[in-house]
């Protein structure tokens, strides 16, 4: 009878964690966190780049489709003041119907979209003969072609390029086709 009382009493005293157990668990947690945080940062940068590229690709496809649907001239460009197109693509991107073909948004013309990439850690450049991209009523770019360069401010590892053909088709450049630099 005495042995069962002793075992019940000893069980109640052994419930819980010691300081050594807590410190061991905490050190394992900190080691795993130290390994995981840089990987998570890389993943978030890669996903931010993919989101920006897909967003611009969608905007280009939308612009081309609107040109065909409306049978008119559509311009897509970066604009600091929502009126004139600039060469610096850090400003919001506007898509508008260009009825008078002056490549400038006038109040009488319809503004279809105003889009901000919204990521200060990425740089966007358009390399072509002109500082804007225009789609004709048949969906072509009127003999205009070029590349959009997405570059990270952190490293060359996070970069992508969209290639725009004269036919108006746009595609993502493969890893082997990426040109160096940021346009």
Q: Could you provide a short overview of the structure?
A:
The protein is of the alpha+beta class and 183 residues long.
SSE layout and pairings?
Layout: H1 2-13, H2 19-70, E1 74-78, E2 93-97, E3 111-115, E4 122-127, E5 132-135, E6 146-152, E7 159-164, E8 170-172
Roughly how much helix do the residues carry, as a percent range? 25-40%
Q: Please provide the count of β strands.
A: 8
Could you give the order of the helices and strands? HHEEEEEEEE
Fourth-level CATH superfamily = minor pseudopilin epsh domain
Task: Estimate nothing, just give the exact number of structural domains.
Answer: 1
Structural class: alpha+beta
Q: What composes the largest sheet?
A: 4 strands, antiparallel
Shape by Cα distribution: elongated
Q: How many helical stretches?
A: 2
What is the distance, rounded to the nearest whole angstrom, between the alpha carbons of the first and last residues? 87 Å
Question: Rg from C-alpha positions?
Answer: 28 Å
Task: Catalogue the unreliable spans.
Answer: none
